[in-house]
């Protein structure tokens, strides 16, 4: 299977009320390198003008963006119980 096909096998129960990752757009728009865009294995970050757009619905909960964002432009917690990703192959 390709990476995209493997990602497509995962199941996501999205918490529509409480996002587990929240961006600080004022910090993101001043970040020149935007490492999250290249580092997120699920491709959830997209450059949008000076800032980034983001959709937490397909998050793999790997924590890469939390570590790589040296500008401290996001808050990151695990999803509440019963929400989040359910891996089908590991
Ligand atoms: Fe992407 Fe991983 Fe951050 Fe989720 S935790 S948004 S999959 S880098």
TrEMBL record:
- Identification of the protein by name: Ferredoxin
Provide any one GO MF term from the record.
iron-sulfur cluster binding
What's a Pfam family in this record? Fer4_10
Read off the PANTHER family from this record: FERREDOXIN-LIKE (PTHR43082), FERREDOXIN-LIKE PROTEIN YDIT (PTHR43082:SF3)
InterPro entries documented for this protein: 4Fe4S_Fe-S-bd, Fd_FixX
In this protein, which residues make up the domain named 4Fe-4S ferredoxin-type?
A: 19-50
Asked if the keyword Iron-sulfur belongs to this entry, the reply reads yes
Q: Which keywords has UniProt assigned to this entry?
A: Electron transport, Iron, Iron-sulfur, Metal-binding, Transport
